[in-house]
Amino acid sequence: MVQETLHAYLDREVGDASLRDLLDRIASACWSISSLVRRSALHGNPDEVGSANRQGDVQKPHELLADDVFARGCAAHADVAMLISEEVDEVITLKDPQPGDFVVAYDPLNGAYNLDVGLPVGSIFAVYKVSRDCGKTALPSGRQLVCAGYAIYGPSTMLVLTIENRVHGFSLDPETDTFILTHPDVTVPQNAAEFVITMTPRRAPIQSLVMRWTASIVAEVHSILLCGAIFPCPVDDENPSHKGSLRLFFEAYPMAMILEAAGGKVTNGRTPILDLMPLEAHQRSFVVSG
Questions:
Q1: Can you tell me the distance from the alpha carbon of 195 to that of 231, in angstroms, rounded to the nearest whole number?
Q2: Which of 1, 13, 79, 277 has the most CB atoms less than 10 A away?
Q3: CB 124 within 8 Å of CB 250
Q4: Tell me, what's the pLDDT at 279?
Q5: What angle do CA 131, 287, 197 make, to 5 degrees?
């Protein structure tokens, strides 16, 4: 049986040549970050650089390196107008957005602290298309997504893409350094097996489910997609000032597109995540998914 490569799949299924090129660039960035992650233990898992991003997270050198890899790959594309990165406070405007241009939002190394203990980390991203000339300050909404995906770096590297309501997984072949289609048309299992803990202590867990938490959104989405799980990150009644744990552009929106395309649901408890209108680039949201 001939195995289909990511490049061949994109040529066959994605009619927009500009989007194909952008996804090739993102896949190349994920390949580079995978290599960076594999070498991290050899570099001694260096300490934090001391600075904090807008989320208040102290940044590690590998996060900044991964951000540079992702930004360089996307910025070199002629039709990318803006970048929204978890590691950069402000929106990076590359040119005045025009209809048909792309906005790419990403967390280049999600769960980076897991590197210290050898747990999975990943990259998660969303590609939006500008539908009209919106100027430099306008932000796209969830329904302007044309593609979302993530790469998970664990025992193997897998790139998961959602395009046109289909979800496919491409595993990195270490012998050829090529992404191969290994998980076509993934759907969320209907019988959840796990309950992901991100809740306040007083909230009672669902007793029939196994509880876990890996502190990596990419790993949690991957587990929901392949094994079935319930992921609650709901409103905290005891802390009304808390705006949610997940970042809308580069976590909640792509998570919602991927899981909805695979038959799952993602909401903030009241509204589907993709229907939420953005107010600012680093906006947070509550999420309940599965």
A1: 6
A2: 79
A3: yes
A4: 84
A5: 150
DSSP symbol at 211 = E
Pairwise CA distance, residues 213 & 230, whole Å: 11
Does residue 239 surpass a pLDDT of 50? no
| Residue 249 near residue 126 (C-beta atoms within 8 A) | yes
- Dihedral, CA of residue 187, residue 191, residue 197 and residue 202, to nearest 10: 140
Coil vs helix vs strand at 199: coil
pLDDT in tens, 114-144: 666 667 789 999 999 987 655 555 688 888 8
Tokens (6 digits) for 241: 């000032």
The mean of the pLDDT values for the chain is 81
Q: Residue 200 pLDDT more than 60? A: no
CB 143 within 8 A of CB 26: no
Q: Which residues contact 42 (CB under 8 A, 6 or more apart)?
A: none
Using the structure block, give the residue that is written with the tokens 């489910």. Answer: 209
Give, rounded to a whole angstrom, the gap between the first and last alpha carbons of the chain.
33
Nearest to 198 by CA among 212, 208, 209, 185: 212
pLDDT at 45 over 70: no
Please state, in angstroms and rounded to a whole number, the distance separating the CA atoms of residues 140 and 151: 23
Q: Which two tokens stand for residue 111?
A: 């769960």
Residue 199: predicted pLDDT: 46
Residue 166 DSSP class = E
DSSP assignment string, 141-159: -GGGEEEEEEEEESSSEEE
Which two three-digit tokens encode residue 280? 């600012």
Q: 109-118, 175-184, 275-284: lowest mean pLDDT where? A: 109-118
